[in-house]
Amino acid sequence: MSNSIKRNISVTGNIEFSDLKVTEPSEYAAGIPGVKIALEHVSKESGLFRSLKTLSRMNQKEGFDCPGCAWPDPDTPSKLGEYCENGAKAIAEEATFERVDKAFFEKYSVEEISTWTDYQIGKSGRITEPFILRPDSIHYEPISWSDAFKLIAEQLHALDSPDEAIFYTSGRSSNEAAFLYGLFVRAFGTNNMPDCSNMCHESSGVALSETLGIGKGSVVLEDLHEAEVVMVIGQNPGTNHPRMLTALQKCKEKGGKIITINPLSESGLNRFKNPQQLSGIFGKGTQLTDIFLQVKINQDVSLLKLIMKRLAKREEEGEFVFDHDFIKNKTNGFQELLEDLEKYNEDQLLELCGVDSAQIDLAVDLLVKKSKIIICWAMGLTQHKNGVENIKECVNLLLAKGSIGKKGAGTCPVRGHSNVQGDRSVGIMHYVSKPLNKALKETFDFDPPDTEGLDTVNGIKAMYNGKAKVFIALGGNFVSAASDTVYTAQALQNCDLTVSVTTKLNRTHLTVGKTALILPTLGRTEQDNERFVTVENSMGKVHQSMGRMKPASDKLKSEPEIVAEIANAYFGESSNIDWMTLGSDYDLTREKISEVLRGYEDYSNRSKGSGFYLPNNARESDFSKLPGGKAQFSICKPPEHNLAEDEFVLMTVRSHDQFNTTIYGMNDRYRGIYGERRVVFMNPDDIKEKGLKPLQIVDLISNYSGKQRRAENFKIVPYNIPSKNLCAYFPETNVLVPIDLYAYKSHTPVSKSVVVKIEAK
Ligand SMILES: Nc1nc2c(c(=O)[nH]1)N[C@H]1C(S)=C(S)[C@@H](COP(=O)(O)OP(=O)(O)OC[C@H]3O[C@@H](n4cnc5c(=O)[nH]c(N)nc54)[C@H](O)[C@@H]3O)O[C@H]1N2
Ligand SMILES: Nc1nc2c(c(=O)[nH]1)N[C@H]1C(S)=C(S)[C@@H](COP(=O)(O)OP(=O)(O)OC[C@H]3O[C@@H](n4cnc5c(=O)[nH]c(N)nc54)[C@H](O)[C@@H]3O)O[C@H]1N2
Ligand SMILES: [Mo]
């Protein structure tokens, strides 16, 4: 092989400012602007007619599943279309007319592309054929599919051990592709399967498995309509799960109340004008949040403890607050929890969480009387050092109120990627599942590896230290999604080979190993030879998805085909698994899934129409697999930050115009930010006290274990956020998150509580 050169790649791209305009935050979500902007995005990228046709098929029974978030579809979709503004943007990204082809890569080197912003890189279009970046080159060039597969097989064979390869999965892959991928990786001989869950809801998975015996939520969509109280904690549904607002609206119409816990008053949770109803478009809309508890970043445990302490007091005073039958028959550890609560002093907890005491009383009043309670949460709880405890504290409250396993009550971790939950269910994970391994052996006659593999953080370290040499990604944008961007980029660059199965170009295709391959695949919306795939939504329902659009290029392959061909090239004649047939016959793959996993009987048939639910023990109040056969209360401690005078806690969040690392546009409409992403939201009193000024340019700096990390060029925006707290967008701020700072047990990077200093320029 030719000599490899060192490429001069920028890991941040251009950090110059564009054109910032700041207005008051929006007073409501969606409404006319929501519909208008949805249509603008799709028609700009792919033409008005094509876009209307595509939107009408989204989330309908015979259509395709939205490639955006994992919020479930109602059984009777709205006639005005079951989509949201941000789903429409996701479609527009995929349906774009722009192309990354041979001429594009002849014109632009990877060095030049890396100086662009993520927004510009994403807008360059759909990839049309396989490309290779050779070790002595800075330009990608075309390669045939068969040569690409051969090269991957050769490099995998050249490794000293299968554990020197890492197989990442993002959450957009279908169940069929993910199952085949997991099967191949185990047959190859490793459990090195980090996935985007590691950076996302892993803390939920760990906490829920340990307390309720299942790593998923317990509610279904209809439960949200029935609930008496919905608590939305650490989640911004107006932007990230817009169709959830319709469910919250139904809950309110039936008399339910909503408590929101968040450092920011997100407009999506204030007033909602449902774009799927004429009254929503033209009327005043629905007030969603009844009680807003403005918690300090990462002090949810303090706040929940305070709520429980006050609930316990009300019980002592003679009210019926806790569900003692449920607690006695179904749970372990309630007495210990009450004893632990006594150790905390109210004033101390109030000071820590920073919430107004009278507001907390309003929430307590509500919770005393109700038992149909649902807690919804997302990244505001999971991406902290104590992410697992945050969720366990929510489970404590639900268990004490008997709010699990009954209609209108339960846990609702709101998933991110549209099929991240399905990928896990069919076997994408770095840890060992003994039942899965046993079933794989029975069905496919090989011994799957039985030692735990590398997750995202450990995978990055292994590549950095030269212990892993091949990195293969089924989707995603690893370098921009993971923490510590500079370190992660170096880790990937240390590899011999990096491979990405992808629809579009992103920064991970620039920060690559000596050799790099881009394998272009069909998107969700595109026709796949009349075949359909299946996905699982956030509430454990599996259903089909069938693309209808003409593919972006006739050289694309489907994900199951690509995975099967890699496996086939690697094993050659030596495998007793017929990879090529499995990769092309999705019905057969589904049959194999149903042989290996419980709950998928008659899979292909049942996935048609609105689909089927997978078994869920928490929904049935069956805790037989847990210690003593009971759900577990947990003792959790409030976290300590011990901030120095000049330190702040920074949360890194999504703007309204992005899907993770894909930047759709430069606005964050609901927060009143237009034309710029390099902003940091700061409390107006803090700005004054530090002698800073609105719109002043600063750098953000994190110091950890003697190493300084810097994110340059942010404009200060005064905002309603607790003192000593800051907020900025990811991925720009990922350079600040140290690789060694992650949640205990789940290893989720602490993207929502990074301690930083501000330095004026
Ligand atoms: N349009 C769009 N949809 C998406 C995505 C997207 O990027 N764009 N991403 C998808 C993915 S993968 C995921 S995981 C989800 C993410 O969905 P979210 O979790 O809603 O996304 P974030 O922007 O990270 O928002 C976190 C919210 O938590 C709050 N928060 C931060 N720290 C704390 C805290 O300590 N306590 C509390 N109580 N709140 C806190 C923030 O103010 C913010 O409102 O969305 C999915 N859907
Ligand atoms: N600082 C900070 N970091 C974070 C977070 C945060 O809140 N703060 N959030 C974390 C979370 S919750 C998550 S889930 C991760 C996300 O991590 P990833 O899942 O790795 O990142 P995405 O940005 O969702 O990946 C987008 C890329 O997927 C590819 N793609 C799109 N559609 C398809 C498809 O159909 N098939 C294939 N094969 N590829 C496709 C495109 O190339 C696109 O550029 O980021 C995490 N990183
Ligand atoms: Mo996520």
Topology:
Layout: E1 21-22, E2 29-30, H1 31-46, H2 48-57, H3 85-95, E3 99-100, H4 102-107, H5 110-113, H6 118-122, E4 126-127, E5 131-133, E6 141-142, H7 145-157, E7 165-169, H8 175-188, H9 202-212, H10 221-226, E8 229-233, H11 237-240, H12 244-253, E9 257-261, E10 271-273, H13 278-282, E11 286-287, E12 291-293, H14 300-316, H15 324-330, E13 331-332, H16 334-342, H17 346-353, H18 357-369, E14 373-377, H19 379-382, H20 387-400, E15 410-413, H21 420-425, H22 434-444, H23 456-464, E16 470-474, H24 478-481, H25 485-493, E17 497-502, E18 515-520, E19 533-536, E20 541-545, H26 559-571, H27 579-584, H28 586-596, H29 603-606, E21 612-613, E22 631-632, E23 647-653, E24 658-659, E25 662-663, E26 673-674, E27 679-682, H30 684-689, E28 697-704, E29 707-718, E30 725-729, E31 754-760
Parallel strand pairs: 2-10, 3-4, 7-16, 8-9, 8-14, 9-12, 13-22, 14-15, 16-17, 17-18, 23-30, 27-29
Antiparallel strand pairs: 1-26, 5-6, 5-18, 10-11, 19-20, 20-21, 23-31, 24-25, 27-30, 28-29, 28-31
The structure holds ligand MGD (2 copies) and molybdenum atom.
Cofactor: [4Fe-4S] cluster; Mo-bis(molybdopterin guanine dinucleotide)
Pfam family, one: Molybdopterin
Organism: Flagellimonas pacifica
